[in-house]
């Protein structure tokens, strides 16, 4: 079992901005070195790396730049934002099984100033792109918008429910000086009158476009006790590729509204000592607001079709049933393919978040829903 | 406009479309015969590699739809806001084809007022050629 045998002992990040002058490689090195400094571990001790696809800097470049030692484990998880939590899972497995002792996971991204991936028509995979892109389903917002409208139709979820998600993230960003949207409050009127991106999704249903990098350090629980920061244990971890799943355009299985979250959740909870009702704070992947109600259902915080209603009454705010994305998330802190959700989970369990949930002991962190995904349960 | 980047598994769909036929891959094993989409080498139900392409009635219902607005690729931005729909086939409701509801087979993607679209609305297939490839379009039954 992986349970509590490893811990995250260091986190690091660069500034977040629409445009940062340095290269992705430089940003990656800065974040990794900051995380190692936070952990009190020398870069020469690093012997494992994990990243996920759409990362431009490979481990060879990072390892030689930071002066890592001999590296004996390295992995790269597929499916972009679906792989964020899996990096921690892979490092935890490697450390727990003796393949390595000090693991570093990172994400560096210049999505704010760089090109939009969907504009690249040269690298589209034939399957399943041939079945969707010619018809103008060009962007992730179009693909998820399709599921969102069906979800709203089937279960009576409303734009107000999606606004609740956007607002909770923005409110937390307004407490976080590092967040892109720190000084920009959101109102219901702003949300309801904003421009459409892909109806039924408007501007505020979409994540930010950010330059930035983050990293974390994973070591064994024994080693973690010697590190300067309070260890945050990897309690449970899972990846999720459901039967007959088709990727972001999951339109062809029996039930497209039951996504990879359900698969990851079953495995996650099976290995855990606690359940959804015991989660103090959640960092749920929010590239698009509808992913949150879907994930709330998938990870068992409410029943099928109840994700919209769950957001009512301030449930996602500090003091609510499930404080959400307490650094501001991808919607309002920074969109760095979900890695800021991992570091925010660590901050909560250290007690150092800018929107601290009192006495938070347990945190769920999830990766991109819709694509093959991953999730981790952290505890202090 | 983007044309389909066709792979070996999907090629027959586009070849039949060029003849004005909507065909979906099916298992050809005795006692199975399950339809499957997107196409793939073998049947996920019985694992047979024997396949055929079964003619569909061309009728279906809108399962969901979006109305994309810019920023979009230039050819699409020129027609935005347009509709993109998922149509569940009457012959196989769990097979849903992405497409566009248009006023006539060769009409642009924005030729139907999005306010006329409803989940559950009945549509029938039509075909048009774009960039040298024949693709399905969808016409509202109660035009
Ligand atoms: Zn079969």
From TrEMBL, chain A:
Gene3D superfamilies per UniProt: 3.40.47.10
Start and end of every Thiolase C-terminal domain? 254-373
Segments spanning the bilayer are: none
A Pfam match is Thiolase_C_1
Query: Can you say what this protein is called?
Result: Lipid-transfer protein
Species this protein is from: Streptomyces roseicoloratus
Taxonomic lineage from the root: Bacteria, Bacillati, Actinomycetota, Actinomycetes, Kitasatosporales
From TrEMBL, chain B:
Where does the ChsH2 C-terminal OB-fold domain start and stop, copy by copy?
A: 53-127
Record domain ChsH2 rubredoxin-like zinc ribbon: where: 14-49
Q: Name one Pfam family in it.
A: OB_ChsH2_C
Matches recorded under InterPro entries: ChsH2_C (IPR002878), ChsH2_Znr (IPR022002), NA-bd_OB-fold (IPR012340), Thioester_dehydratase-like (IPR052513)
Q: Which Gene3D superfamilies match?
A: 6.10.30.10
PANTHER family given for it?
A: BLR3430 PROTEIN
The identity of this protein, by name, is OB-fold domain-containing protein
